[in-house]
Amino acid sequence: MATYDLVVIGTGPGGYVCAVRASQLGMKVAVVEKNASLGGTCLNVGCMPSKALLHASEMFEEAAHSFAKMGVSISAPKLDLPAMMNFKQQGIDGNVKGVEFLMKKNKIDVLKGSGKILGTGKVEVSADGKSQVIETKNIVIATGSDIARLKGIEIDEKRIVSSTGALSLEKAPGRLLVIGAGVIGLELGSVWRRLGSEVMVVEFLDRILPGMDGEVARQFQRILEKQGFAFKLGSKVTGVESNGKALLAKIEPAAGGAAETIEADVVLVCIGRVPYTDGLGLKEAGVALDNRGRVQIDAHFATTLKGVYAIGDVVAGPMLAHKAEDEGVAVAEILAGQAGHVNYDVIPGVVYTTPEVSSVGKTEEELKQAGVAYTVGKFPFTANGRSKVNQTTDGFVKILADAKTDRVLGVHIVGREAGEMIHEACVLMEFGGSAEDLARTCHAHPTRSEAVKEAALAVGKRAIHM
Ligand SMILES: Cc1cc2nc3c(=O)[nH]c(=O)nc-3n(C[C@H](O)[C@H](O)[C@H](O)COP(=O)(O)OP(=O)(O)OC[C@H]3O[C@@H](n4cnc5c(N)ncnc54)[C@H](O)[C@@H]3O)c2cc1C
């Protein structure tokens, strides 16, 4: 008799959510975690600490630049970075405790140590030189991802940092060079720019935010430039040296050509993440990887080894916490004989800068490439009453609808609170709704969400306030 119905390896948002759902469905569950604290990348060195610093640094910048115009007079705010880091840590600790509470509440055993799959139904858990073998009916691999490294650039997490080091710098660097204009680079670049750093972002491609709608990325780049970001697109960093005082980054055009040297005090390497499978014993156990090192799964999250499943960053798809969570729920439901499912066409993505960027569904580029005829409805926040009174009018809402059926295929927002506003589009798209449906849905006034309704009206060329 197996001790458990399910053993989940990894307690990030994929793993712990999977464990909770499986327990709700009556399974006896254990989680295995090699880190000192539960919660994975997301809670410890990802989503949560970055959002704490984004919030605190935004407040700092608002206090310095926005309060006076609203008639709130204060003396210039001073940065107390240790206190800000403490604020971040309190947020991490609170969330980690929350996961510990959920494990207890759902009677899930927490096995501290490194998990290795010995074969179907067998997981070895090792810690402090000791190991035990756990028997289980099913195993879910939820071991997440690790930072991607650049050949020849050694990350020391002090001066040449990954996102992890950039969340714990001891002072705001004078000059911060960010390698990679993806979501994490722009978020952490924003934090340090607000706290006083000069930020330059070097990106291999000729655009920022690869994968997001091109028009959105272009407008967002202009907004970031107005805030003081400098961009070097179509360029690659080929090496970083130190002259004792400063770091010297060698930068070449992506297409080849003369190199230049840019000085920086801290270099942040933010070129993406790679699936993490170290020490799991996958090869020996017979769990296959795909050509990008991710655990290979079928449409039901099953790996090539019977009774072993995988979810989250360690498998294909967007490396996002909510995608991992939804997969965790789906696989638990499948194991319970239900029809667990994730709709990969409706997974929102958010950049938590100021303004925020959010998006769900297809971009214009994707629709063009697929030869789908579409109509565009756009509405700028400059024409939204609430944004005007708050004087936060950067950005716009863009809705892409099928030209024949009016079904909404994609929604893209640049603007304050865009990350909260995207969800009505997600619900609409889950129900296969049309721009007309959205346009005829009453929206509270005055809200920024009225811009979403107006963009839906604009699909039919009948926006009221424009
Ligand atoms: C700076 C940063 C900011 C981010 N911001 C966001 C955001 O705002 N929104 C968003 O959706 N996503 C964000 N992400 C991405 C998000 O963190 C990941 O998509 C998410 O954490 C993936 O969840 P997961 O459960 O697959 O794996 P993880 O969260 O990576 O968890 C995996 C866990 O498995 C454990 N583990 C690994 N191997 C073993 C083993 N052999 N035995 C035992 N335990 C093991 C690890 O210790 C870890 O705790 C961010 C990432 C970073 C780095």
Explain this structure to me?
- With 466 residues, this protein is of the alpha/beta class.
- The chain has three domains: 3-145 and 274-335, FAD/NAD(P)-binding domain; 160-271, FAD/NAD(P)-binding domain (3-Layer(bba) Sandwich), CATH 3.50.50.60; 349-459, FAD/NAD-linked reductase, C-terminal dimerisation domain (Enolase-like, domain 1, 2-Layer Sandwich).
- 32% of the residues lie in helices and 25% in strands.
- It has helices spanning 13-24, 40-45, 47-65, 81-105, 163-166, 183-194, 214-227, 282-285, 321-335, 364-370, 385-390, 418-421, 423-430, 435-439, 450-459, and strands at residues 4-9, 29-33, 109-112, 114-119, 122-127, 130-141, 145-147, 160-161, 175-179, 198-202, 230-232, 235-242, 247-253, 260-264, 266-269, 273-275, 308-310, 349-351, 356-361, 374-380, 396-402, 408-415.
- Strands 1, 2, 3, 4, 5, 6 and 17 form a seven-stranded mixed beta sheet that branches. The protein has a five-stranded parallel beta sheet with strand order 8-15-9-10-11. The protein has a five-stranded antiparallel beta sheet with strand order 18-19-22-21-20.
- Strand 13 (247-253) and strand 14 (260-264) form a beta hairpin.
- Helix 1 (13-24) runs parallel beside helix 9 (321-335) and helix 3 (47-65) packs antiparallel against helix 4 (81-105).
- The longest helix has 25 residues, at 81-105.
- The radius of gyration is 24 Å and the shape is globular.
- The model has no long low-confidence stretch (mean pLDDT 97).
- Residues 9-15, 32-35, 40-42, 46-47, 50, 114-115, 142-145, 163, 184, 276, 279-280, 312-314, 319-322, 324, 352 line the site of flavin-adenine dinucleotide.
